[in-house]
Design brief:
alpha/beta; Rossmann fold; glyoxylate reductase (NADPH) activity; oxidoreductase; 7-stranded parallel β-sheet; D-isomer_DH_NAD-bd; about 325 residues
């Protein structure tokens, strides 16, 4: 008698390729919308799911982990960040947690560099001018951006994504500074200059880009003092986590002219972000879409399913956290 298919709850919408695979290989309950935490817990119990595949909308703190039914043995997170769950609490209950750390590196780095270029070159203002009809020519001193080529780029968090941003920056002749929990070996540094602390690095950064996780461990990294430490006219970019930034301090730095511009993909409250940013001409905004390409969103869903399949087959998970 053939073995029953592993029982899986997919608590978020996936791309067609990942959805089709989930249907083929698992006894899958597929969400028609991105489930809330309560919906996911109830659905996991009703389906008797052995694994649940989630995204950031399912927030599993210690209390929520405690309410998961005992038959759940795996939480497969379909992104690299997992600050929306308490992995330690899950492990204490014997539940494995996995993520998808490799598949979204390039697309996140691409978007970070798009934000760098767009913020430096006033892309929001230029595009708005064109959509308004552009009937008056610009003179030599009008609507000037800053040249990103050759600037000093500071990177906070020199993991996979930070290193991919550095690789792109080298093509623009940028000098690269970085802070990381530990210094990288020379073959990974590739000439980037290490700083043991963020405050020590900030005064040297003409452009600053964040590439580290959010959560309690890192707290608010960019507060009033941190923005003040950047040189006047600096550009700030964040594709990491909104929780790393004191947004009132960022708004003050942008409106005072201390910062030339910012490029933001993440916010403290999503999707209900602080719309004061939208009113500023020197901010280029995207709605948390760093991984939003066909290739990467396919790969995220499929990699999460790879982890489910590995556990179901009695193998070690590919991407334990």
């Amino acid at each position: 008698m053939p073995r029953a298919l592993p029982r899986l709850l997919v608590a978020r919408r996936l791309t067609p390729a990942a959805t089709d695979r989930a249907r083929r290989e698992f006894d899958a309950l597929l969400a028609e919308h991105d489930m809330s935490t309560e919906e996911a817990i109830d659905a996991a119990a009703a389906h008797r799911a052995e694994a649940i595949l989630i995204g950031p909308k399912v927030k599993l703190d210690a209390a929520a982990i405690a309410r998961l039914p005992g038959h759940v043995k795996l939480i497969a997170n379909s992104s690299v960040g997992y600050d929306h769950m308490d992995a330690e609490a899950a492990r204490a209950r014997g539940i494995l947690v996995t993520n998808t750390p490799d598949v979204l590196t390039d697309c996140t780095a691409d978007l970070a560099f798009l934000l760098i270029l767009a913020a430096c070159r006033r892309a929001h203002e230029y595009e708005a001018l064109m959509r308004a009809g552009w009937r008056k020519g610009l003179g030599l001193p009008d609507m000037l951006g800053v040249r990103p080529s050759g600037k000093v780029l500071g990177i906070v968090g020199m993991g996979r994504i930070g290193r991919a941003v550095a690789q792109r920056a080298r093509g623009f002749g940028m000098r690269i500074l970085y802070h990381n929990r530990s210094r990288l070996p020379p073959d990974l540094e590739q000439g980037a200059e290490y700083f043991a602390s963020v405050p020590e690095m900030l005064p040297h950064c003409q452009i600053l880009s964040l590439h580290l996780p959010g959560g309690v461990a890192n707290g608010v990294l960019m507060d009033e003092a941190a923005f003040a430490a950047l040189p006047r006219g600096a550009v700030f970019v964040n594709t990491a986590r909104g929780s790393l930034v004191d947004e009132d301090a960022l708004l003050a730095a942008l409106t005072s002219g201390h910062l030339f511009a910012a490029g933001l993909d993440v916010f403290r409250s999503e999707p209900d972000y602080d719309t004061r940013f939208a009113a500023l001409p020197n901010v280029f905004l995207t709605p948390h879409v760093a991984s939003a390409t066909l290739e990467t969103r396919d790969a995220m869903g499929l990699r999460a399913l790879d982890n489910v399949a590995a556990i179901a087959a009695g193998r070690a998970p590919l991407d334990p956290v």
